[in-house]
Write a structure and sequence with these properties.
Layout lengths: L1 H6 L3 H5 L19 H23 L5 H10 L4 H4 L4 H4 L3 H19 L4 H16 L1 H24 L6 H13 L3 H9 L8 H5 L2
């Protein structure tokens, strides 16, 4: 029995617990969002931004790598939970300490993997710290997801997200890359439409 337990890894069981982590915990949500939903949506948007960069602007992004990074970017939160932005970024000391906690969470997760495949997954998490170009695309995708969430909440008549929308929009436009600007011009407006309006475009 002990040998069997040593062969079992809980890494993926823990990763898939993202569906139990609720986002936007300080705010009233018309439609609650969990971490698994967010990660999936972020991967779709990150893939789109990287693809736009390559096909429209002649960049050379590793689309697959960026998409996988997006899928895993919030995985440490299965241990930490989703820290509200006003708390997480209250000051540099808190942000730095929380960053250390996230690193410990990542190491704890990686330790659950068999050694022969552990480095493959370590590379995903390390790329978020070392690959500045891919990390920039991922950050833009993450912010676009937050902005889309605000748009959808407003569409449901929820004014709770109005100030968050302005804040996210400012961050998006401050340092928007050409891929993000393209997405915002060509794709973002459709998120504010009804299903019938979207289908009739």
């Amino acid at each position: 029995m002990d040998n069997l337990k040593s062969e079992i890894s809980s890494f993926f069981a823990l990763v898939l617990r993202q569906k139990y982590i609720t986002r936007w915990g300080l705010m009233r949500n018309a439609m609650p969002e969990n971490l698994a939903q967010h990660s999936s949506e972020c991967a779709v948007i990150a893939h789109a931004l990287a693809t736009i960069g390559n096909t429209v602007f002649g960049r050379n992004y590793d689309v697959g790598k960026i998409t996988v990074m997006a899928l895993f970017h919030d995985v440490p939160e299965v241990f930490t939970g989703d820290m509200p932005t006003p708390v997480k970024y209250a000051n540099e000391k808190i942000r730095k300490q929380f960053g250390e906690i996230e690193k410990q969470s990542t190491e704890g997760l990686l330790s659950k993997l068999p050694e022969n495949i552990r480095e493959e997954y370590r590379n995903i998490f390390e790329a978020m710290e070392t690959d500045e170009e891919s990390e920039r695309i991922l950050k833009s995708a993450d912010r676009l997801c937050a902005y889309i969430k605000c748009l959808e909440e407003e569409k449901y008549g929820n004014s709770e997200f109005s100030s968050a929308k302005i804040s996210v929009e400012n961050k998006l436009t401050e340092n928007a890359g050409e891929e993000t600007k393209y997405f915002m011009e060509h794709f973002l407006p459709a998120f504010g439409l009804t299903l019938d309006e979207q289908q009739n475009l």
